[in-house]
Structure formats: C-alpha cells, structure tokens
Amino acid sequence: MRRLSQFFVIALIFRTFPLSAQPQAQSVPEVTTHDAPATFRTGVNLVLVPVVVRDRMGKAIGNLQKEDFQLFDRNKPQVITRFSVEKPGAPVISAVPGPDPNGPSQAPVTTPAATPAPVIASRFIAYLFDDIHLRVQDLQVSRKAVTEHLQSLEPTTRAAIFTTSGRTTLDFTDDRDKLRESLNHILPFTSAVTVGGECPSVSFYQGDLIVNKSDQQALAVATTEALACYPPPPNATAAQIQQAQLQAQQVAQTMAQRAVSVGEQETRLATGVLRDVVRRISVMPGSRNLVLVSSGFYLTVDLRSEESELMDRAIRANVTINALDARGLYVIGAESDPSQGGFIPGVTSQKSQYQRDSALADEDVMAELADATGGTFFHNSNDLGDGLRRLTAQPEFIYLLGFSPQNLRFDGSFHGLKVTLRNPAGLSVQARRGYSAPKHDIDPEQEAKDEVREAVFSREELHDIPIDLNLQYFKSSDVQAKLSVLARIDIRNLRYRKAGDRNNDNLTIVAGVFDRNGNFISGMEKTVELRLRDETLAKLPASGINIRNTFDLTPGSYVLRLVVRDAEGQTMAARNGAVQIP
C-alpha cells in the first residue's frame, strides 16, 4: 500500500527576524503548525442555484453578470450574494514536474523531455441504471445504447457502472471490455415486496392520493375495483351489499397503504444509491457527470427533503446529473396495459388518468435533478444514442447563484425557486426549481471542512492566494519513488485580524495525490497559525512561506492537488500538477 511520507517541512523566510524578550503575551510564537482543522466563517444556510442560459440555437452563453439575474424564493425577490460562472470542462493541469535535484545521486532519474506526457483522467461519467423501476424492454434498449456510446469516450474519460439495486457495480475505469461486461450483467430487479397481481391494483401514485392526501375519489375508484373482484353474492340483501362495500373499502385502504409502503421503500433505495454515487463521483478530480437511466420514480411529500439534500450534495460537489428516460416514446392508459384486465365502469377511465398523471410525476424527478444541477433531461424520443450524446456534452457555461434566505424556518418545508432574466429576449433559462429548508442550523465548522474537501477533489484552479508550485521526483529503485511537493505561498496580502501588535490568521494546507484513474491515493493536511508582529508583516518578502512535502509512491502517472485556505479572509488557492514516474 502506498503511504504518505512523514516528511513535512515549512520554512519561513521571515524567521530570521528574532523574537525579542517581551512579556508573556509578546513571547507567543509568530508561527506554529499542527494537525488540527481550522474553522472558517462561511455563509449560513447558503442556497446554491445552478443556472444554464441558452440562446435561440440552444447554445449555452457565458457573458452575463449578476445584475442580469433575478432570483425568487416563494415569489419573494432575494439578494444574490454569490455569483460565479463555471466551466464544466476540466481545467488544464499547469504545473510541470521534473526530477528532484536533491535526490540521491545514485538514484536513476528520467528527464521530463524523455518521459511521455501522462494520460491523466480529466472527466468522469457514472452511468446509473435504475433497474428497480426499469421494465425489461426498456432496460435492454438502454443497455445497448450505453454499450455503443462507450466507443465514443475519449482516452481521458473514465466511466463507472452502478445500479439502484446494487447488484451490478463497476468503479471508474478506462477498461472498455470490463464496462461492456458489467452492462451485460444488468437485469431487471424484482423486489421481494413488490405488489403485483392483487385486486384492486393500486399504484404508488394512487396510493399516495388515498393515504397521504385523503383523496375520496381515488379511494372510491379502488373500492369499486375491489367490489368488482369480490362482489356480494347473487340476490344479496341490502345489508349484505353494504357489508361487501365496507369490506371492499377496507381492502382498498389496505392495498393503498401497502402500495405506499413498497413505493417509498423502492424510492428511498433509488435516491439512496443516487446519493452514494454522487458521493463517489464527488471525490474524482475532474469534470463529473452522472447519467441516470430510468423510467422515473414517484416522490411523496415526505421524500422531497431527501431529493433536496441530494441536489445540494451534487451542486456543492460540482456533479452534473443528466437523466435519460428509457421509455422513449410511450403510450399511457389502462386500456393499453394487459395487466389491468377488463373494462370496469367508473374505474378504467379514471385509472387511465392516474397512469398518465403518475407517468408525468415519475419523470418530474429526473427533470428536477437535471435542472437543479445544470444537466439535461432527455425524453420523448426513441433515439437513445442521440440522447446519450447530448447528456454527456455538458453545457460550456453554468452560472452559480447563491443566496441566504432571510428568517428561514428550520422546518423542512419546500421552497419553490424561480430564476428570470431582466432582459430575456431570445434567451431561455434552466434552473433549480426549489429546495427544502433544513431541519436544523448549519454547523459552520463542518461546512468549512466540507468546503476544503470539495476543493481538494476538484480540478478548478483558484488564485486568491499567490502560490508557486513545483513537483519533483526521484527513484530509489525500479519499484519505489518519492514525489516532492514544493510550494511557495505569498502571505503578505492576507486579511489578518488585528489583536494588539499581532496580525492573526490560520492557513489550512492540504495536498492530495490521485492515480491515473482519478482514485485518491494519499493526502496530508496542516494548519499554520500566523501571529505576526507588525514589523514582521511589514518586512515580509514575496516568498513568504516555503512548503515541502514528500509522498512515497510507485512508478506511474499521478495528479497532485494542493489547496490553501485562510480563515480570516475566507480566500482560497488551488493548484494542479501532473507527473509521470517511469
């Protein structure tokens, strides 16, 4: 197992300034380092809203400013406090590594000119098949379309295969044969508790109307169907007819409760796997795309908070969720479904309407997830190959709007969102449709940790704090090598907090190493506490702090990610470096 070397050095250029004999308060060291998390002051309950704006030709545009947007929460205008324009394509890895001149003289090294450029993974696509809800024919067609689509992936793209049942899983790889093999193993999933063949036949949608929304018409339809299946005896008395109707209603309510129980269980399973896949892809260092292949599934009101949490997790991790409706063009109606049996007056037509409403509600969740994360929902077409091409061609620009709701109640209620343009001529807007209020306040310390972590598992380069990064390696044998990370951080312009004659700030410095497939290998984290005197700060050179860190690796291709964050100014720097150790 590769491990992180314990060798970590911070050299301070300004350490030549001696500490004078002062009272106890003055003898506090100007710089200390330790392995402890720093707490950043971050926005409380910040809601992020990705927005894609397209012109008449369907092309995403990226020249709008914050002032061009209007954002409404429950129809109330909000102040946009965060604004950025994201480019989903992976940034260029700019740091150029070389051999370590300080390595052992006898160690064989290879110069960069003689070393081929590493083929580093820069894009990650997770295909998630919702085999819990997919019909046999829809799964077969969509599986074939994805198999053919794999041939068009670029060498820098890594793909993974997941299923909502959890029966088929293949982590990110560039091995196309393994991907095709995993696709062939995906089969429709039948739950042990799936409802089928009962009478009355109550869908999850209709059951929700009966159980959670007290819809008397839906209950009457199910009761009439139950009565048709279990009619009173011939020449029944009025009392027997009344008793049969009462029993039919009880059967209808029982079947509705069972449909809701089974439906919620399967939906929670699907959303739970979605959340897990988002979590998995969020630690991949590059462009992140999740393609949900499904016929959709239904969300009750109680499940909306889970959807909102899923959206928030994907948005904060820069994961674009795209959805492919595997049904293609389809016809809805009980008369077209052989499982519905014969015509029942007052039932068949109404159940056809429920099926249409259910089909629309099922696909709503796919559209909502795509809209919320800047993705695309492909539906109402049998050309799934074209759909996959569209879904994996991310928009060139995604605007990220953020606002902090005022007087927000921590009650878990749903808030509808709307984003408009002040001058919408010829432009269309795709944006997140809503969010669920949290049920408790945000933990700033945990949010800060998540923010740094998300920056580490990204490829975006940030330059709020000037950093010079250099990577060097030397080989001690054919199977052992050391990668040295050399960073120089300019700390002169940090936003220090003044306390007496001291200027205070904390730096969190995190370095992570990833292999050619984007898998995290090892990492380190240090907190640097700065308590600089006025005279020290005034005389700081641009070189500021020199950092050297060494990783023990084996030969191969790697990406190094360095992130620096200061607590007082909430500024961040992030740099990438690629190295191939032959």
What does this structure look like?
This protein has 582 residues and is α+β, with helices and mostly antiparallel strands. It has four domains: 178 residues, Immunoglobulin-like (Sandwich), CATH 2.60.40; 82 residues, no CATH class; 206 residues, Rossmann fold (3-Layer(aba) Sandwich), CATH 3.40.50.410; 54 residues, no CATH class. Helices cover 27% and strands 30% of the residues. It has ten helices and 26 strands. Strands 2, 18, 21, 22, 23, 25 and 26 form a seven-stranded antiparallel sheet that branches. The chain has a six-stranded mixed sheet with strand order 10-9-8-11-12-13, sandwiched between helices. Strand 9 and strand 10 form a beta hairpin. It is elongated. It starts with a strand and ends with a strand. The N terminus is likely disordered.
Question: How would the blueprint of this fold be written?
Answer:
Layout: E1 4-12, E2 31-34, E3 47-54, E4 69-73, E5 76-78, E6 82-86, E7 98-99, E8 123-129, H1 136-149, E9 157-163, E10 169-173, H2 176-184, H3 204-211, H4 216-229, H5 238-281, E11 287-294, H6 304-316, E12 319-325, H7 348-373, E13 377-378, H8 384-392, E14 398-403, E15 414-421, E16 428-431, E17 434-436, H9 444-456, E18 462-463, E19 467-475, E20 481-489, E21 497-499, E22 502-515, E23 520-533, H10 534-538, E24 545-553, E25 556-566, E26 572-581
Parallel strand pairs: 7-19, 8-9, 8-11, 11-12, 12-13
Antiparallel strand pairs: 1-24, 2-23, 3-14, 3-16, 4-5, 4-15, 6-14, 9-10, 15-17, 18-26, 19-20, 20-24, 21-22, 22-23, 22-25, 25-26
